[in-house]
Design goal:
Layout lengths: L1 H7 L1 H18 L19 H8 L4 E4 L4 H18 L4 E2 L8 E5 L22 E8 L2 E7 L3 H16 L8 E4 L5 E5 L29 H13 L3 E3 L12 H14 L5 E5 L4 H4 L11 H17 L5 E4 L16 H12 L5 E5 L11 H9 L10 E6 L23 E6 L15 H8 L12 H5 L10 E5 L12 H15 L5 H12 L4 H22 L30 H5 L5 E2 L16 H8 L9 H4 L2 E2 L10 H24 L7 H33 L14 H6 L9
Parallel strand pairs: 1-2, 1-3, 3-5, 7-8, 7-14, 8-9, 9-10, 10-11, 11-12, 12-13, 13-14
Antiparallel strand pairs: 4-5, 4-6, 15-16
Helix pairs in contact: 4-5, 9-10, 12-15, 14-15, 15-16, 16-20, 20-21
The structure holds alpha-D-glucopyranuronic acid (GCU).
Length: about 725
């Protein structure tokens, strides 16, 4: 009563209302966000932080005389205005302390007296330095080219977004990979093969007349992490993309991407000279075929002078290729390389080949095919190799081609879309997977010959280098189908720029830019991301198992499946489990795939005592009762891994639920729902797999382990005719 009376006093009532309003504000969840802005949200910083940054961003000096510098200016203004909560002034030269001066030496001649050493920066690198300019304290972004300036602008913004100081800066950076490219598996009808984020963003129907503003935002996002190219169409290519009317559409996209330093590339169908040119053959040594491709290249470069080149999937999974004419992959690649060379274009020739007519272990086939061709490719050919010898599984050992072809530049192909890792819904941070592969030691030239050093050209002195990521981008409002999938696009770009970076650092930056700068959010979220990859390996394919997913759609567990059209598409081909044991024997006494690795690696993988647990069943067939390093039997450890995977997902959910209110409601809720799906499906993977293994080995469950929730028949009866992405 007394309290009520007190608040009736007008002055006090005002105070009480104000307090209530503040309380209501505090209780109100952060504004909803739909994820469209990715990691370029530029939301206002807390007041104190904004004030201290404002002292280093009092004005912008940037001659925006080219489209790329105009993009840099627009981004800096957009970013700084948003983050610092005020309009950033502009000037022709630094007139007060705290100016940001950006440009090349030609576009910002006031930088010349600083005698900056830009030599090591190359075309794409930049320098950010705190200097005194015209008597004022200033921050300089300098580069040899406009695109370097743009990359520097994004880096400066990242420093602010991630809470780094802007004082006493002396930062230089340049990419270690030359070609940093997304591969869109987008079909011309708008469907995305293995895409789980809606349809293709390329609206071929409305192009070239309508340029969706999304194309610009796509280019901004890519440039912000240094991605400098995009293959616009599916590797399972339709020759139609090479028709003149489609090339006009491609040219229109190229026009939007160009200011952001992105080149367009196309997947070329090897038989296009027959399909489009009416030739009777696509034989790469046939003069008419060579002339057709030269003409096609000339036509493309007339429309798109900076066209990047072709990506080719040949003689792989039914695609046409040079072997149809008894020619080699080198013959095919070189023919296209010759057509592109006058225009400085490149060929990215995929090494993803295997044949079910070849009875040899599928994991060995790419190496068997390509290793003898080392040194036979033209200088403008990159061989594009998937990270592992099979196909983007949750875990694979690195492909033995890395380190085996020193006279050929090898390009990494990672999958960003999660074809085998739970589609759009499962939270799996692929930075951890990429890092594991890049840091793997091939021993090609002794200890320390990491995959990263092979693909960045350091080990074998290659100037042409690259990394490709199979894009996870679609027409969904949040681009990638889930907030956390955005991190995989981001991490791919960062690692393509510099494959030596740490996945954890990248996750930390991404979280700060995308979700929150609050440590109470950043720490648990980064922990979730870092744990997520091992979790998915555990609940799907522990201890080196692989390719156990449903045939065709690749969704959900189907280790029992023996129905695939080809033996090498059937899970049973890969696990070889029976009453006594499980695993693919790739040791010297088995398929001898181990022999494709450098001697120290081969010895380790071959030896049951030395092979890492993570690759045990990849390289060895062992009895269910095999005694593991842990002291348990294989069966006990296998079941423990499955259960651990499910428990980890429960943990992800629990951690996320504690962040409610600290993350905007919309993204919080979507992730929470997806984690619930992931938990159910992790349980499904575990239970279905265990039920199946038990049907073979007849073993009781290890003590303390819960039996599968349903019968094996139940899991076998599940069907997914409308699974996305096929
Ligand atoms: C996987 C994927 C296919 C794709 C192929 C490739 O097998 O399921 O959809 O075409 O890889 O990389 O070429």
């Amino acid at each position: 009563m007394r309290d009520q009376r007190r608040v009736r006093h007008p002055a006090l009532r005002g105070v009480a209302l104000a307090l209530l309003a503040v309380a209501a504000l505090l209780a109100r969840p952060a504004l909803a966000e739909d994820g469209y802005e990715l990691w370029l949200r530029y939301r206002p910083l807390p007041a104190a932080q904004a004030t201290s940054y404002r002292a280093h961003a009092t004005q912008l000096v940037l001659d925006a005389g080219t489209p790329t510098r105009a993009a840099a200016r627009a981004e800096l203004l957009r970013g700084l205005d948003g983050l610092l909560g005020q309009a950033t002034g502009e000037a022709k030269q630094a007139t007060r302390d705290g100016a940001i001066v950006a440009g090349t030496l030609a576009s910002a001649p006031q930088l010349v007296p600083l005698k900056l050493d830009l030599r090591a920066l190359g075309n794409d690198g930049f320098l950010i330095r705190s200097v005194t300019l015209d008597g004022h304290a200033a921050t300089v972004i300098a580069a040899n080219t406009d695109i370097g300036v743009l990359y520097g602008a994004f880096r400066l913004l990242r420093l602010v977004q991630t809470g780094q100081p802007l004082a006493q800066l002396d930062l230089r950076d340049a990419p270690r990979e030359k070609v940093r490219v997304l591969n869109h598996w987008d079909n011309l009808d708008g469907h995305v093969e293995r895409g789980y984020a809606g349809n293709s963003i390329w609206d071929w129907w409305k192009l070239p007349d309508y340029l969706d503003p999304r194309y610009t935002d796509y280019a901004r996002a890519n440039a912000s992490v240094g991605i400098n190219g995009a293959v616009l169409n599916n590797v399972n290519a339709n020759a139609t993309i090479l028709r003149h009317e489609y090339l006009l559409k491609v040219a229109a996209v190229a026009g939007v991407l160009r200011p952001y330093g992105m080149r367009v590339y196309l997947s070329a169908r090897f038989s296009a000279p027959m399909e489009l040119g009416g030739l009777k053959t696509a034989d790469p040594l046939d003069p008419a075929v060579r002339t057709w491709w030269r003409g096609k290249a000339d036509e493309i470069y007339k429309l798109i002078p900076d066209f990047g080149g072709f990506l080719v999937k040949a003689n792989s999974e039914g695609q046409p290729g040079p072997q149809d004419y008894h020619r080699s992959h080198a013959d095919g690649a070189n023919m296209l390389a010759d057509a592109l060379a006058p225009h400085s274009g490149i060929v990215m020739w995929r090494a993803f080949v295997y044949s079910n007519e070849n009875p040899d272990d599928r994991a060995k086939q790419a190496y068997t095919e390509f290793k003898p061709l080392d040194g036979q490719f033209r200088r403008n050919v990159l061989l594009q190799v998937k990270n592992g010898p099979i196909d983007f599984q949750p875990r694979e050992p690195f492909s033995p081609l890395f380190g085996a072809m020193p006279r050929t530049p090898l390009m990494m192909e990672f999958q960003v879309t999660k074809e085998y890792l739970g589609f759009a819904t499962h939270l799996v941070y692929l930075g951890a997977l990429y890092e594991e592969v890049l840091q793997a030691d091939t021993y090609a030239r002794g200890k320390g010959s990491t995959v990263a050093k092979i693909i960045d050209g350091e080990l074998d002195n290659h100037a042409l280098t690259g990394m490709a990521g199979v894009a996870n981008i679609g027409s969904d409002r949040d681009w990638c189908g889930s907030t956390f999938n955005q991190a995989n696009w981001y991490a791919f770009g960062r690692l393509a720029w510099n494959p030596a970076q740490s996945a954890r650092d990248i996750a930390t930056d991404w979280t700060r830019m995308t979700l929150s700068r609050d440590d109470a959010v950043v720490k648990p979220v980064v922990a979730m991301m870092m744990a997520s990859r091992e979790a998915v390996v555990d609940y799907m394919t522990p201890l080196g198992l692989h390719h156990l997913m449903g045939t065709g759609h690749h969704y959900g567990p189907m280790p029992w499946d023996a129905s695939g059209a080809r033996a090498d598409w059937r899970p049973v081909y890969y696990h070889r489990a029976d009453r006594n044991g499980i695993g693919f024997d790739r040791s010297r006494t088995g398929s001898n795939a181990v022999a494709q690795y450098a001697a120290p690696v081969a010895a380790q993988f071959d030896d049951l005592k030395q092979v890492p647990d993570a690759y045990l069943l990849w390289f060895h067939h062992v009895p269910w009762t095999y005694r593991m390093r842990s002291g348990h039997t294989l069966w006990e450890d296998l079941v423990a891994h499955y259960t651990h995977g499910v428990d980890e997902v429960k943990q992800l959910r629990a951690t996320w639920s504690k962040l409610q209110g600290r993350i905007d409601a919309q993204r919080y809720a979507k992730t929470a729902s997806f984690l619930a799906i992931q938990q159910n499906e992790a349980q499904w993977w575990r239970d279905a797999s265990i039920a199946y293994w038990q049907s073979l080995n007849g073993l009781p469950l290890p003590a303390g382990q819960k039996p599968p929730a349903r019968t094996l028949d139940y899991y076998k009866a599940l069907a997914f005719p409308n699974a996305p992405g096929r």
